[in-house]
# Entry
Amino acid sequence: MEIVLIFDFNNLVSLAPILSVAAFYFLERLFSMSHSGFRRQGSFVMVYCIGFALSFGVSTYLLVHFVMLMAPLQIFSFANWQVPMFVSFLASLLFLDFIYYIAHRIHHSVPFLWRLHRLHHSDTDVSALTTIFHHPLEYLSNLAILIAAAVIFDIPVIVLVTYSLIHGLHSGFSHYKKPLPEALDKWLSYVVVTPSFHHVHHGLDMALGNSNFGAVLTLWDRLFRTAIVQRKKLIYGISPAQAPSSESIRHYLSNPLK
# Structure
């Protein structure tokens, strides 16, 4: 039963950002901040659909085996932690956010994983639509890290579902094209990843790109000194040598081989 719920969680993780992206993309269009062409929109959505189909298929046939493989490695149980339930719940949420932070840093530091992740950074017009622009294989690498951590630390499924909703709904906001009022952004970013905080991470200058890894909370960036506050106009993207040769699904999918 637990494994079935983890499988349902995986599907929720993949679908949750769609609502967020749709809402913030609508706001960008409403306020004339988004000028994406139909080809770009369509190719981003198609790459996302391929990633969703791939992760769904792999989960269907391999998730149970992967969970069973990880189970003997369990070193702690949040689910059976002898503390008040709300303490365990909040601690598990914080831990999952920490795992996302670590997974993001790993994707920047391990060459093979960077080849998967760099497609997301290749977008030179960061907006809500950028949220879903990930290489399909990156969905699998992130899923493997997350599920391994969830099993090894026995995180309750209700926490996985809750965090997936929070993270998914927040993701479109973090890529939103319009920055918040500076005073509000300053105070909010002490706790939560705001658009201006996350947009720094998409800077062409990798001194900026290798910062602000947080998914929902800025806590881990501040704790591990990877936070950079930059309110100047940014240039987005990655070097031409690493970026897709053209805006086409074929070049997006083959980008890790470049």
In short: Confidence is low (pLDDT under 50) at residues 1-5. The radius of gyration is 18 Å.
